[in-house]
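I'll show an entry:

:::
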Amino acid sequence: MLSTVTTPTSPADAAVLDALAPEGGRPDGGSDAAETAVRIMVAAADAFAERGFSATTTRDIASRAGLSPAGVYVHFASKEVLLFELSRRGHLRARDLLVAAARDAADPTEALRAIIGGFSRWHAEHHQLGRIVQFEFRHLGPEHQEQVLDLRREIDGVVADVLAAGVASGEFDVEDVRGTALALLSTAIDVARWYSPGQRRTPESIERLYGELAVRLVRRHAG
């Protein structure tokens, strides 16, 4: 029988839930099954970040979630499905944040600064999950890989649209819009690879730096 007791949320767990929200968060009045599924995803994220996908077993995940291995399979058919859910939800959350930042900006320059800065900060604040969703991709099956690639193309499209708008308005000087969008996003994603808490650079400072660097790279200069 599944426990009906809500597991306390640690700071690390809260960061994962925030990165997966709203779909991955704990909605008010959520069912016991939904609560347990979220607990399993948090445990899987913790295990994958610590041990890597290949070295993590379903038993590792179950132990961290306070369940038996059979309890994990009630909610997720395999370890690969768990990785896919983390990757899918993480990409959805990142895409939605970029769309909102672009929508709320006053002009393409402000939009680019906000989306690249915000994307970089997301990969610092959620560096463990970022490493999983970005660098464990090869372990997904072909169908799941294609679904994640579709989300990545949507993210690329958000940045490309902002760059194209900036070129049209005369703010940006960009010949290869798609290639530049990919380059800018790649620098933001790489933050998850090298960032660790407690170092001199904070997520806030990374957001400011990367946002400004993106604008400086594409800004049209007079003369």
